[in-house]
């Protein structure tokens, strides 16, 4: 039975600030994707929790959106309600830092360096938000957020507010209970990380060096979703794509970056279908050439069928 009853649609349309058929392409790093059937941008956790609970009570599908990285939205858009989470507060107590889920990781990396804290420099290479980082155990340069995470505060529909330690989140390489397990559909409100006292200026110099190196090896100034594939154990997805001769491979306006094989770039006007065809083509060829099954890191959401 469809969730689209008169009462459910009336409830959605009555939400304060809600927009119908709102474009999502401009809210993703890929610049790709159809509209949200209904869209809300919320900063107060209580308002987000209320909207999620209301959706669950009415069987309305919903998607929580941060910075729109690591995401491929279908050309036909997303059914139900999309909630963009924009709570960006932060507080520092000694060497512990608590940050709202909507705060960008790169911004937080600079904030903690200004506070003379070390151990978060890797986050300068993570383009998403704090909530998104917890959702998929994001990382860069061989370090993941689980290595500094103390806890995350969240909300589970029907169960209310919760605090999760890393074991409860079952964090693993680009996954968690939030993305693939028992907490799927739950909201991350904030995260607390444990850092160390140190030289903030040295941290900034290291981050500047890492950013320079990244700009030389990754197409960071283009429209892309970040790494497309997870690295197979003991190998690199980018190396495999390059070895398969797929750098520069194209479907429509989507192209495998000539700078790094694990990035697909939207050259302008690429569709989600273009990107998906290219992803599938790469997977087939790498499997054929090397017998290795690449697994997408990018999450495909929306009306694909």
Count of alpha and pi helical runs: 9
* CATH fold title of the largest domain: Uridine Diphospho-n-acetylenolpyruvylglucosamine Reductase, domain 3
In spatial order, strands of the major sheet run 6-7-13-11-12
First and last CA, distance? 18 Å
Write the H/E string, N to C. HEEHEEEEEHEHEEEEHHEEHEHEEEHE
Give me some keywords for this one.
305 residues; Uridine Diphospho-n-acetylenolpyruvylglucosamine Reductase, domain 1; globular; 3 domains; 30% helix; Uridine Diphospho-n-acetylenolpyruvylglucosamine Reductase, domain 3; five-stranded antiparallel sheet; alpha+beta; 9 helices; four-stranded mixed sheet; Uridine Diphospho-n-acetylenolpyruvylglucosamine Reductase, domain 2
Summary, kept brief:
It is built from nine helices and 19 strands. The protein is an alpha+beta fold.
Strand-helix topology:
Elements: H1 6-14, E1 19-23, E2 35-42, H2 45-57, E3 62-65, E4 71-73, E5 78-85, E6 90-93, E7 96-100, H3 105-114, E8 117-118, H4 130-136, E9 139-140, E10 143-144, E11 149-156, E12 160-164, H5 166-169, H6 177-180, E13 187-194, E14 196-197, H7 200-217, E15 223-224, H8 237-243, E16 250-251, E17 254-256, E18 264-266, H9 272-290, E19 299-301
Parallel strand pairs: 2-5, 3-5, 4-19
Antiparallel strand pairs: 1-2, 6-7, 7-13, 8-14, 9-10, 11-12, 11-13, 15-18, 16-17, 17-18
Helix pairs in contact: 3-7
